[in-house]
Amino acid sequence: MKQSVFEEIRIRWVILRANALFSLRESLAYSLNNWGGLASTVVYMLTYLVFLSAIFGKVKSVAGYNYSEILLFTLVTQFNFYLSWIWSIKNLDRLGEDVKSGKLDLILTKPLPALWYVTFQKVDLFMLVFEMWPATIPLIYLLLKNATFQIGFRGLILGILSFVVGHIAIHCFQFLLALVTFWTGEYRGLNGLGYQIAIFGDSLPLEAYPKALMSMGFTAVPFLIHSGLTTSLLLGKTTDIRWLFLATGVMLAFLFIKNKVWSLALRQYSSASS
Amino acid sequence: MEKIINVKDLTKVYEVPIKQGFWKSIFVSKNKELVAVNKVGFGIEVGESVALLGPNGAGKTTTLKMLTGLLYPTSGDIEVLGYTPTDRKREFLSQIALVMGNKTGLSWDLSARQSFTLFKTIYQIPENIFEKRLTELTELLDATEYLDTPVRKLSLGQRLKMELVGAILHRPSLLFLDEPTIGLDVVSKRKIRNFLRYLHREEKTTIILTSHEMADIEMVSDRVIVINNGQIVFDNSLEKLLHNYQDKKYLTVTFTKPVAIDKLSKLGNIIDSKELTATLEIPREKQGKVMARLTEKFPVDDIDVRSIPLDEIMEDLFAKTR
Lengths: 274, 322
Hints:
Chain A is mainly alpha-helical.
């Protein structure tokens, strides 16, 4: 009963769709939580935009980025933030909780590619539609109003690739931290650390980091790819494509390590009884 | 008969951290080995209904989890449906189901029907078959009316019925149950036991069950594997186990007026007595004689004859093999 690759992809796609619908229904079960979440992200966005306009009222540029370029960088970091919450962070928390409580048993005994399933168990469409877009509208408005740059076709393609590659790489890094729970039964602190490391790269543009940090941020702890390199490529500040090759290599290495450590983690799983 | 499960020299050793001081535990943590399952071996045939019994910590749940591929054995061989469980092949997982009385596989915030829709996708059950099966199972369990209620609003018994329905929607050939009636009321327990019996008899599902409820075992299982201290101490039919303990009988006698207990004690060992009732433990071969003496010498209203309860058999077996 060996399935073809296409059949395997089809099954995964169908389950992914079902999971997304399932997650949407779960989100809709708590409407007040949803409105609260939307309000808090809108308030954060407005506060940050006020902060940016205050800073750029005093200085012309930060790390070589003017106001409109910083707005673009902020938009990329916001997309990363939401994308992380839409599929990565919530799944890592759920994995930690499921390992701790032994609920992972009920996933591991289903005919599913378990690693893939725990990675995409929750796909929060509600956040994508009702939080991400409304909260970023003020930012997009300001960006369109103040844009002083142009994005070329090459920059756009390289930027999108870097965004995807960086997002996967940092997710794998966070996933590896979350896997420690199989050995220790604890996950909250490490998941929090993974999250903080990921957004560390969202605080300043790529060019602001010292060389040593940049080396680390492109390899062992890949926090500079998803936002830093992406914006730099979009704006044409980085033109050397080798950075993207390096990022892709790092992503592939992390995917490989994620698979290997997952297998080790399953061997370590103690399946808490109650 | 074809063997569905083959287990040989199965051993599971856990590493348990030894309690030390804070700094020691960080830098030089020490573990001790805890043997949960020790060189266990058994085979289970297609269509059998087997109970794994044992006191808490005996190793029965660990054995069950190794059979489902959740835990990796330290040593030994397991073959279930022709597969090594820890390989987690889709073909293997499509044929088994696991129900745990203390864990829920259903989404807390959604209705059971919504969770079942996801299971339908996972198990690739065609829509028409899914609907038919869902109707059939919920009717059997009297659970149709709360199919659309959010799981968090269901009682424990209702939720467990839904867990069962969800687990067997895909018609598994092998069903693992870990304490399926834990915490349930009498009515729910009976309903679930009857349902499991139905699955075993009508759908020919092979059932492996762990439970502390002897009534679960009596109603659902034909064969009993008793595990104590990680080793099998009994593996045979339930009848054989009961037969081994049939040298005693219990007579619960109801009198029409109070009787002298010292006179009654001459007929057997009194294990319980109240104003108008008494329970006597007697050797099986003396049953007829004692009953005749009772009706002859005492104002007897009724006599109830019982064999030794399964609970007591287990207690005795655990004590002997401690």
